[in-house]
Amino acid sequence: MVDTVSVPQATDPFAKTPGWLDWNTNPSRPRFALPPGAVDAHCHVFGPGAQFPYAPERKYTPCDAPKEKLFALRDFLGLDKNVIVQATCHGSDNRALVDALRAAKNRARGVATVNRNVSDAELRDLHAAGVRGTRFNFVKRLADFTPREVLLEIAHRIAPLGWHVVVYFEAQDLPELYDFFTALPTTVVVDHMGRPDVSKPVDGSQFELFVKMMREHDNIWSKVSCPERLSISGPPARGGEQNAYRDVIPFAKRLVDTFPDRVLWGTDWPHPNLKDHMPDDGSLVDFIPHIATTPELQRKLLVDNPMRLYWDMSDDEEAFEDIPGTTLFNGTQSRQGYYLNMFCMSLMKDENRKAFKGDEAAYLETFPMSDAQRDAGAALARTEEAEPARGRQRRQWPP
Ligand code: 0GY
Q1: pTM of the model
Q2: Whose C-alpha lies nearest to ligand 1, atom 4?
Q3: Residues with active-site annotation
Q4: Residue 127: is its pLDDT beyond 70?
Q5: Where in the chain is the domain with CATH 1.10.700.10?
Q6: With b meaning 16 or more CB within 10 Å and e meaning fewer, what string describes 42-67?
Q7: Is 103 near ligand 1, meaning CB less than 6 Å away?
Q8: Topology of the domain covering 2-311
Q9: What is the spatial distance between Cα 124 and Cα 332, in angstroms, rounded to a whole number?
Q10: More confident of the two residues 4 and 20
Q11: Between 20 and 30 A from 158 (CA), which of 6, 152, 170, 240?
Q12: How large is the average pLDDT for residues 287-299?
């Protein structure tokens, strides 16, 4: 007879919220060809909980959605970059976000959650990792109330870094939040169009208030994201569905048409807290041409606007008269070139050059490239890889 010893089952500290829907592991390949350099400007990473524990104060426990899966989706859909937004399940512990940003090597930027106790050094570290904004959440099921004066204090702390504030709220709360949002000292980016009730008319009083806020305050931007959360009529974007979420189109299209330079788009992967279906991310990409109907609007929505806001770059494509055979750079590339030149000049010192030649990795450990230099190197390398014709235009000579 064999003795049996009963071993207590380890309980999972991060058991998912009952009814939780996991992200789609089998998205369709989009039919819409994204422009080169397209940015998913709203997505999240969750955990993994064993490495980056979920916050004790969280209102839900998600499935893990680690950075590797996010980057795989980015590549599969034909996106170039991500803006990763700190999700409430991680509270103000930004470690999972920072880890993903560092791993993305300039192909991601972040929006963190910070509280009033954050130190200047912590803010600087977040900035160095790629954070460019902080998020204020007014959706009651997601976050506890924070007094307005505390949020305003935080906004003033982050403003000198050039960061913006992302706000998440529901349309019925806008009248009460309006004065607070319009008094913020930074660019303000609204998540998911302020969550309008899309059963109401697109020119009805609720959405008009949102449009008025954007019209009268040119520091306010909107993400035209999350049709899967807003749609009432559907049909849901399952398995390559091409006509998904028709009732959301007039709202998103109105914002793209009216404010083409202040709109952003994102997948919202891994789609927290959805209740009845998990969208096919490929179909979400196919939603884009319904709301941004020309190549110019698509380029602004997906490339120019997020690059300006998150990668500190203009899209100045002006070509200059030049010496025969030299490479023409636009404004962005000139700035990148400048940073790289500065790095190269540091190597004019003999001892630096010897050290660099001897052991490049060790040299970069001792004299790390600044953020701007690293960004510039990575961006130029990618431009070359992705679109050689646009990145470097050889001038014809004679003309
Ligand atoms: C979204 C939407 C939601 C959740 C969060 O941070 C979050 O937990 O943003 C939601 O439940 O509506 O943008 O991901």
Answers
A1: 0.79
A2: 272
A3: 268
A4: yes
A5: 331-394
A6: bbbbbbbbeebbbbeebeebbbbbbb
A7: no
A8: TIM Barrel (3.20.20)
A9: 24
A10: 20
A11: 170
A12: 97
